[in-house]
Amino acid sequence: MVEPVGNHYVVARPVYSEKLFDEEHEKLHRYHKTFWDHLKLYFRCSPERVKKIALGLFPVASWLPAYHFKEWILSDIVSGINTGLVSVLQGLAFALLVNVPPGYGLYAAFFSVLVYFIFGTSRHISVGPFPVLSLMVGGAVVRLVPDDFTVNGTLVNISRIDEERVIVAASVTFLAGILQLLMGILQFGFVVIYLSQSLISGFTTAAAIHVVISQLKFMFQLTVPGFNKPFGIIYTLESVFSQITKTNIADLVTSLIVLLIVFVVKELNDRYKAKLPTPIPIELLVTVLAALISYFAKFEEKFNVAVVGKLEEGFQAPVAPDISVFQRCIGDSISIAIVGFAVGFSVAKVYSIKHDYPLDGNQELIAFGLGNIVGGSFKGFASSTSLSRSGVQESTGGKTQIAGIISAVIVLIVIVAIGFLLEPLQKSVLASLALGNLKGMLMQFKEIGILWKKDKYDCAIWVVTFLAALFLGLDIGLAAAVAFQLLTVVIRSQIPSCTVLANVGRSDIYKNRKDYTDIYEPEGVKIFRCSSPIFFANVEFFKEKLITAVGFNPLRVLRKRNKALRKIRKMLKKGELQVTPKGLICMANHTPESDEELDNNRIEELDQPTDLTDLPIHIDWSTDLPPTISVPRVDIHSIVLDFSAVSFLDVSAMRVLQKILKEFVRIDIDIYIVGTHEGFLDKLERSAFFDEEIKPSMFFLTIHDAVLHILKKETSHFLTPNFLCSLQEKGSNNHCIISTSRGLRSREHKVGLLVPAAALHSLWEMRSPKAAHKSCKAR
């Protein structure tokens, strides 16, 4: 019963153990489905399930019939045109990162959009080339087809190298697509949860630095070989600076001017985006202007600048991937598949939350996978999504993937009709455009300070990921970053937060005793909380912290007591001890014996419960023993273990926990475990955790239930039977009234736990052995 009293509440209910609560409230024993039950359910067939699977596999069939043509079509057309122009320029620019001719970037920007339109679940992302993925594909391309590529020991010309690199890029993309498709079919969409936001941020920032370094050779127009190996970025910088005197000044000046213009206009777009009807298409304007100037000023002839050159008109026939490339690039493809999905899904999730529609991670994997398979078949390279390009599509009014189809039409027009207009465009301009899209990634350096204030572990993940990806390469760096991230999880769970709790404000609230001054600790009771699952890696830490909290090692105390009993029996047999009404009296000087003699090679017997049945007197270990016998003093009688944050125990932890609990029980300390989650006791019973010493009755609902049970049990030691009977005659019903402002109290019609309020308060206030002694003396 709960009675609200102003801003307080009064609760009247019995003290519950887990077993008593389940019996009184008739707990149901539910049937938990097995793996085979889930498997049967997954493969069952019905018309409704077939329809659901079909609509899930082809999301376009669910949203296209509901398309609001009149309201949305104009917005999608405007958005698609703007996005298409950006896709063309980014496709050309990011092809340089892959080390293939720029025209192949248009294929990557076209086919992936068509596939995503049918299979994707996000309405706002723009699918296509992404600089990080392009750089990762380019690393595999350069490793397999270096600048000094030979066939049968003979150097080949540039065109042959380009052809080989296109095949390698397409094959790596095809394999990455297969991996993504398989992960989607096998429902592995959850893999993205292992890439935290800190890891993705540090990784993409390092990738942005790699992009900057890789574009230096186009800005300076230098011949720099690819170094796709650990510390390759250092070798690249060394190669660039060793040739710095060969810089083409025209390319360098053009790059710097374009970079300056792009950065300034993008900053204006960000600052005045609320006032601008649409962002200024600076990439398009710069590209058109640079191509015109290069063509009419004849830059290629006068200054020997590197230009895009001839672009293939139309599409090339699809090609089969090179199987030999699969064997040598499996690691690259795995990294590309995971990073591509992680980046694409994280961007899609931003817009799904903003516009309130669901996303299916597994279907996204299928969509990206099929897009890469089709793109790789037509000599494109890996695609995902770009935050800047998706931002253009969403901010210019895009409502659905109809805008994506319009953008693909723009790319198609460039491929089949007007691609020749871009032939005089300098590669240095494309490099600058690629760098102009990295501002958001490079600004992620600011997250270091923010993460340091919020969470040191996340900050460490960011820094380690950044350094690993920067110096070891993106593929090895990603693997190292994931390993380090999982290591931090292990460290955090291996060293859990363990605290000693105390009652705050004489209510039912228990907090860390170090955080409050108005605390109450029942004498002889320790309340210990572990805020982590307990498993093989941290169970010893848990044991050490528990021993530190109670102030003694129960196994050591148990062994000392058993050794003392052996000594007492031996002294009684020799007549050196005499039993009197006041206890044991030493009658003669006893010759000290070493622990080794007492053990008598039977150390395992010392770990057994103390056996007092054959002694003529009951031994109270808290009183003074004969001077020749020394046993550690134990000042507590009960331990409450708060397991409300312990989500699971493994077998190793169960064994250690069972052992430590038995050690406490064998030295006459009562153990209570509270707050366990659903199914915890069932698992312990299945694991044969309980026996004659450890029983299910030690489990209670809450800390307060356990504490009240302890107070009732301990108070009964000094209340007389006649007094208890008189309380029972008054109609006590084993209820306790709790007030959050005034602590425990009893009323005449409901006697708290068969104990008068004065007795309860005296127990709360007995916070030291000295206070306990005075209290007993007063009685």
UniProtKB/TrEMBL annotation:
Subcellular localization, as worded in the UniProt entry: Membrane
SUPFAM superfamilies: SpoIIaa-like
InterPro entries: S04_transporter_CS, SLC26A/SulP_dom, SLC26A/SulP_fam, STAS_dom, STAS_dom_sf
Lipid bilayer topology: Multi-pass membrane protein
CC terms in the record's Gene Ontology section: membrane
Keywords: Membrane, Transmembrane, Transmembrane helix
Gene3D superfamilies (UniProt xref): STAS domain
Domain of life: Eukaryota
GO molecular function, one term: secondary active sulfate transmembrane transporter activity
Chain segments annotated as transmembrane: 77-98, 104-120, 127-146, 166-195, 202-220, 249-268, 280-297, 334-353, 402-422, 460-487
Principal cellular location given in the protein's record: membrane
A matching Pfam family: STAS
Boundaries of every STAS domain copy: 515-710
Keyword Cell division: no
Name of the protein in its database record: Solute carrier family 26 member 3
Provenance organism: Apteryx owenii (Little spotted kiwi)
